[in-house]
Amino acid sequence: MTTFHTLWAHGNIAENARTMYLKWETKQVKNGTIENQSRILNGYTDYSFWYGDSSKSATSNLLVVEANRFGEGGSGVAQLLAYMTIVHTARRETKKENTMVYGILSDRFVVHFYCLRDGGRYSVNTLR
What we know:
The chain contains 2 helices and 7 strands. It has helices at about 15, 75-95; strands spanning about 1-5, 20-35, 35-50, 60-65, 100-105, 110-115, 120-125.
């Protein structure tokens, strides 16, 4: 696990420093209902960035990253969106003010930046 420090722009830097974490192969799990049937969504994100106490599950995730082999960048869209939905749903259920989730899908040469908003709407920007 790698630790990063984020410094806020206002006030005393030491008082406002927060710890962020980067972890690979992070397990994501969420119980839910799909088409009136109970389901368990689960999988391992390639990389996750989060803040604070990791024991608070997915609610503190800031960014989900899915990496694919060269030329297969587009094949991970559904997988990435499923992981982002797990995080988004957990944030909504804990009544977080900001439930937006960001994701990155890349094959090293093409990078897709995703943003998942309320109502399941997402946007994507691609960098080639």
